[in-house]
Every structure is written in structure tokens, then in C-alpha cells.
From TrEMBL:
<keyword id="KW-0479">Metal-binding</keyword>
<feature type="binding site">
    <location>
        <position position="159"/>
    </location>
    <ligand>
        <name>K(+)</name>
    </ligand>
</feature>
<feature type="domain" description="YjeF N-terminal">
    <location>
        <begin position="10"/>
        <end position="213"/>
    </location>
</feature>
<feature type="binding site">
    <location>
        <begin position="397"/>
        <end position="401"/>
    </location>
    <ligand>
        <name>AMP</name>
    </ligand>
</feature>
<feature type="binding site">
    <location>
        <position position="120"/>
    </location>
    <ligand>
        <name>K(+)</name>
    </ligand>
</feature>
<dbReference type="InterPro" id="IPR029056">
    <property type="entry name" value="Ribokinase-like"/>
</dbReference>
<feature type="binding site">
    <location>
        <position position="360"/>
    </location>
    <ligand>
        <name>(6S)-NADPHX</name>
    </ligand>
</feature>
<comment type="function">
    <text>Catalyzes the epimerization of the S- and R-forms of NAD(P)HX, a damaged form of NAD(P)H that is a result of enzymatic or heat-dependent hydration. This is a prerequisite for the S-specific NAD(P)H-hydrate dehydratase to allow the repair of both epimers of NAD(P)HX.</text>
</comment>
<dbReference type="Pfam" id="PF01256">
    <property type="entry name" value="Carb_kinase"/>
</dbReference>
<keyword id="KW-0067">ATP-binding</keyword>
<feature type="binding site">
    <location>
        <position position="317"/>
    </location>
    <ligand>
        <name>(6S)-NADPHX</name>
    </ligand>
</feature>
<feature type="binding site">
    <location>
        <position position="425"/>
    </location>
    <ligand>
        <name>AMP</name>
    </ligand>
</feature>
<comment type="subunit">
    <text>Homotetramer.</text>
</comment>
<feature type="binding site">
    <location>
        <begin position="124"/>
        <end position="130"/>
    </location>
    <ligand>
        <name>(6S)-NADPHX</name>
    </ligand>
</feature>
<comment type="similarity">
    <text>In the C-terminal section; belongs to the NnrD/CARKD family.</text>
</comment>
<dbReference type="InterPro" id="IPR030677">
    <property type="entry name" value="Nnr"/>
</dbReference>
<protein>
    <recommendedName>
        <fullName>Bifunctional NAD(P)H-hydrate repair enzyme</fullName>
        <ecNumber>4.2.1.136</ecNumber>
        <ecNumber>5.1.99.6</ecNumber>
    </recommendedName>
</protein>
């Protein structure tokens, strides 16, 4: 399982490695992974390595030695170091004939123009902002060189990023490729910080898996692991057992939201989907049952317990009365997705463990009483706080989304920036309700539904290009399901039925 790990977690693992006498071997492995990645991605020209004073610099010295053995011309510019392993690897570099020159802005500007790749081993997880002036000039020169076309590979983290945050501190470096160790740092996953890191490769290192798992902030499940959570439908299934889903949404001006949620639910396998609205909702698919109610609240609350659905999604374009209606639906105790207008702070404490709450950062800020920027700065912390307040499962939407549930945090894979368009979250709510209606628990539905939706977005992007509509994505849900299924168990190995489709 790929993990998400911050610097504090990595340091805790390092302490165990050090106690076991293994830290030197781990640095060797890390530096070798950097050299292999640099050689594969940027095979031509001289390699210029920049080594800082901490262990990040030690990795750069190891990488220099391996690049030399790969036949590359190698130069090293380094800051002074008191770190024992960094000093050891500087001596090893000298022992194989390597020369180290003092790093400064002028030395970097002299050496950089002819390089085929620059390896940034200046600052990793040990960086504490603000950047000291002496290094600020070096990082500015590094960024200038990169802008002039010399590629940069960052060791663990581009220098000057804060490992756990999505924001970019002043003066931070950028990279074309980042090779990170043991776990993905939050800065490499979210927001403008992730955009600074370029492509990210994870070198898991030969470290006991449970040492890393014990320190991880979050998991990032593989498609095979997601596929194992998807519902299984027996060959004798009929629409009555595939989940009766209600969509409660739509208001004059936002009627499409309810329709799109209905389409999402149908395309994610719900047996019967009914849209209940106070407004005239367009019939986006004739398979949807659409009911317009003069008094929506009275119509829904008059439903006898035996007539209630297997799952509800409430809030999409529902308008000002959404919180009151959602409160009453929550009291039914049926699996419920809460989205958009139903994401109101007064509903904290009204949920149950079969609820999935799906805020985007703006809605998350409203629920937490903070600004959206506080949410996007540290999405893992925000998702944890939302779960503490709301319970059930929480999907903090974004690229990528974070799912928080009683078992911990999970960061989704994939998706596409073209998905940043209106209605995309409405479709997701329908997908989640369909999965709840097919008897998945809230955590499984959230993890599987988010990945299914993201995979559908990837497929839609491949078909349509950049600007995607929620309808394009909904159409790809069947194919996304097939892709995830292909990553999981083959159907004949599944004991209870056939994976569908
Ligand atoms: N378990 C792991 O993840 C492993 C991590 N390793 C490396 O170890 C690194 C962490 O090493 P360290 O904890 O020694 O830290 P770093 O090497 O990332 O940073 C410490 C250095 O940065 C300087 N520094 C800190 N804040 C600064 C500021 N504001 N302005 C200027 N300079 C500043 C310090 O003076 C010190 O020289 C990781 O990023 C990774 O590259 C590897 O050695 C292999 C194992
Ligand atoms: N850059 C992106 N990368 C991946 N997924 C994205 C990106 N931008 C948006 N999405 C996805 O699109 C959806 C947007 O939801 P939301 O903002 O609620 O839309 P709406 O309210 O218009 O329906 C979320 O599922 C989110 O994860």
C-alpha cells in the first residue's frame, strides 16, 4: 500500500533505522534511486548535484557516486555539513575520485548552464521556513536555470517546500521530477506545492512496511485495493435488489444538479432512481423517475418507513431549506449522502455512521468555521477535523480528494483537471448513493466511489480533451468500473457472484 508520510513520520522511521544500524543502508538506497531516476529521465549531458548540510545532501552525495558508475560526467557543489552520514558519503564520493566545490550563487551560475540535469539535494523534510538569505540566492539561481531549460530533479522534496503543506513558501525551488522516499509527502499531493514538484516517483525503500504504516498520515489505495471494495452482483440480480436510490435536490435555477446526481446513480448501478424536487427537473435519462412536489418536505416526510429508499442523496441544488429537510431525512437512519446545500454546520451531530458528507473546500470551510484557504493549505488536517465533527465518512473533494472515516484517511488517485467544472460533484453524489444502496458501508462507498468518479474523469479526458462536462464523466462510469475490476480479482476467484459489468 502506498502511504502518505510527513517529515515527522519519516524521522520516526529513521530513528528506528538508526537504532537498528540500518540508516546508512537506507541512505544508500535512497541515493541510488535518485541516480537511477536521473539517468533514466535525463540521460544526456553532465549531472550537477547540489548537496545541502543535512541528510538530503547525503542522498545527493550517494547519487553522485552512482551516477559516476553509470558513466556520467558528475559535478558536486555542496554546503558544509555536520551530519555524520552526509560527511561519510562526502568522503566516499572523494574516495571514488569525486571532487566537491563550495556551493554559492556564483558557483551555481557558473556550473549550471552546461548541465544535462541538476539534482537538488539542498533541503528536504528538515527545512523550516523562512528560508535563510544565503540559500535564497542559490534557490533563485536554481529556478532561473530551470526556466532557461535545464531540468531539475528534486531529492525527496523540492528545496524550500514544507513537507506537510500544500502552500509554497517564498523562494522555494521547482522541479521537473521529484524522487521521494518511503511515502508521499502531502506537499507532493496537494495544491500549488504539488505543482512545484513536477512528476513524482515514490521510492518505497527496503524498510519494514509496518514501520511506515505505523507513522503514515493516510493511505493511497491502489486500483486493485479499491476494486476489492466494489459491490458484487449475483447473476440472478433484479432491479429491486440493486438499490432504490432517492435524489432530493433541485430548485429553480439549479435543477440540473438533481438530474446529474440521478444520472450518476444510474450509471453506478442503482436499480431504481427517483429524483424528488420542488422544481421541474429535466429528464436527463428516461430511466430516471422524476417527481415534482408542490410541498417537497410534506411529500417526503409523509413516506411510511416501508416505502423509504435504500439510500438517499440530498442537497444538490436544493436551495435554502436544505438543512431542515436533510435533518429529517437523517432521522430515518437510511444511508445518506449529504452534498452542497445540505452541508450546513447545524447538521453536525445529526448524522450517523452510514452518512457520507461531500464538501468541496468552500463548503468544508463553512462547516469548520474557517476560510477555504485554511482547508486547502492542509487538506489532511481539514478532512480529519470534518470527520471529528460529522462522523460517518467525509469526502473532502479536490484534485486529489481525501476520504476520512473511522479507519483513518485515504487519498484518492487520478482524476483530471478538466473535472473542475460545475455539476461534477453532483454526479459524484449520485455515484456514492448508488454504492450505499448496493449495501456498501460509508467508508467503502466513499473510497470506491471517489476513485470510480476520478477514473471516469480520466477516461472522459482521453475521449474529449480538456474541458469536461459532468455528463461526459457520467457516461464513462461503466468503463471506469470495468477498469477497476480489471485491476482487482478475476471474476472466477470471487466467491459470491460476478463482478459487474
Ligand atoms: N527515512 C527517510 O525518508 C530518509 C530520508 N533521507 C533524507 O533525509 C532528509 C531529511 O534530512 P534532515 O532531517 O537532515 O533535513 P534536510 O537535509 O532536509 O534539511 C536540514 C538542513 O537544512 C537546513 N535548513 C533548515 N531550515 C533552513 C532554512 N530555513 N534556511 C536554510 N537552511 C535551512 C539545516 O541547516 C540543515 O542543514 C529527507 O528529506 C531525505 O532526503 C534519506 O537519507 C534516506 C532515508
Ligand atoms: N483538478 C482536479 N483533479 C481531479 N478531480 C477534480 C479536479 N477538480 C475537480 N475535481 C473533482 O470534481 C468534483 C467537483 O465537485 P464540486 O466542486 O462539488 O462540483 P459541483 O458543486 O459543481 O458539482 C469533485 O469530485 C472533485 O474531486
Amino acid at each position: 500500500m502506498p502511504w502518505v508520510l510527513d517529515g515527522a513520520g519519516a524521522r520516526a522511521v529513521d530513528a528506528r533505522l538508526e537504532a537498528a544500524g540500518l540508516l546508512d543502508l537506507t541512505m544508500e538506497e535512497a541515493g541510488r534511486a535518485v541516480a537511477d531516476a536521473a539517468h533514466a529521465a535525463f540521460p544526456h549531458g553532465a549531472a550537477l548535484l547540489l548537496a545541502g548540510g543535512g541528510a538530503n545532501g547525503g542522498d545527493a552525495f550517494v547519487a553522485a557516486r552512482h551516477l559516476l558508475t553509470l558513466g556520467r560526467e558528475v559535478q558536486v557543489l555542496a554546503l558544509p555539513s555536520r551530519h555524520p552520514l552526509t560527511r561519510l558519503n562526502r568522503r566516499r564520493w572523494r574516495a571514488v575520485g569525486g571532487v566537491t566545490r563550495a556551493l554559492g550563487e556564483a558557483a551555481l551560475k557558473r556550473a549550471a548552464p552546461g548541465a544535462g540535469v541538476i539534482v537538488d539535494g539542498l533541503l528536504g523534510t528538515g527545512f523550516r521556513p523562512p528560508l535563510r538569505p544565503a540559500l535564497a540566492g542559490v534557490l533563485a539561481a536554481l529556478n532561473g536555470t530551470r526556466e532557461r531549460g535545464v531540468p531539475v530533479l528534486a531529492v525527496d522534496l523540492p528545496s524550500g517546500l514544507t513537507d506537510s503543506l500544500a502552500t509554497v513558501p517564498d523562494g522555494a525551488a521547482g522541479a521537473d521530477l521529484t524522487v521521494t522516499f518511503m511515502g508521499l509527502k502531502p506537499a507532493l499531493l496537494f495544491g500549488p506545492a504539488a505543482a512545484r514538484a513536477g512528476q513524482v516517483q515514490l521510492a518505497p525503500l527496503r524498510v519494514p512496511g509496518d514501520w511506515v504504516a505505523a507513522q503514515a498520515l493516510a493511505a493511497q489505495p491502489t486500483d486493485a485495493q479499491v476494486a476489492a471494495r466494489l459491490p458484487v452482483r449475483g447473476a440472478d440480480a433484479h432491479k429491486g435488489v440493486a438499490g432504490r436510490v432517492w435524489i432530493v435536490g433541485g430548485h429553480p435555477g439549479t435543477v440540473g444538479a438533481a438530474g446529474l446526481a440521478g444520472v450518476g446513480a444510474l450509471r453506478a448501478g442503482a436499480g431504481l432512481v427517483t429524483v424528488h424536487s420542488a422544481a421541474e427537473v429535466p429528464l436527463l435519462m428516461p430511466e430516471l423517475m422524476v417527481h415534482r412536489h408542490a410541498d417537497l418536505r410534506a411529500a417526503l416526510l409523509g413516506t411510511p418507513a416501508s416505502g423509504r429508499p435504500d439510500a438517499v442523496a440530498v442537497g444538490m441544488g436544493l436551495g435554502p431549506d436544505a438543512a431542515a429537510l436533510a435533518r429529517e431525512i437523517l432521522a430515518w437512519g437510511v444511508p445518506t449522502v449529504l452534498d452542497a446545500d445540505a452541508l450546513q454546520p447545524e447538521l453536525a451531530g445529526c448524522g450517523h455512521d452510514r452518512c457520507v458528507w461531500t464538501p468541496h473546500p468552500g463548503e468544508a470551510g463553512r462547516l469548520l468555521g474557517c476560510a477555504a484557504a485554511d482547508v486547502t493549505r492542509d487538506p489532511l488536517a481539514a478532512a480529519r477535523a470534518l470527520h471529528a465533527r460529522l462522523g460517518g465518512a467525509v469526502v473532502l473533494k479536490g484534485g486529489p480528494s481525501v476520504v476520512a472515516h473511522a479507519g483513518g484517511l485515504s487519498v484518492s488517485r487520478g482524476g483530471h483537471p478538466g473535472m473542475a467544472s460545475g455539476g461534477m460533484g453532483d454526479t459524484l453524489s449520485g455515484v456514492l448513493a448508488a454504492l450505499l444502496g448496493q449495501r456498501l458501508g460509508a467508508a467503502d462507498a466513499a473510497v470506491a466511489g471517489v476513485r470510480l468518479h476520478a477514473r471516469a474523469g480520466e477516461r472522459a479526458a482521453a475521449r474529449h480533451g480538456y474541458g469536461l462536462s459532468a455528463s461526459d464523466v457520467a457516461q464513462e462510469l461503466g468503463g471506469a468500473w470495468r477498469d477497476l475490476g480489471a485491476a482487482g480479482l478475476p471474476p472466477h476467484m470471487h466467491p459470491r457472484g460476478v463482478k459487474f459489468p
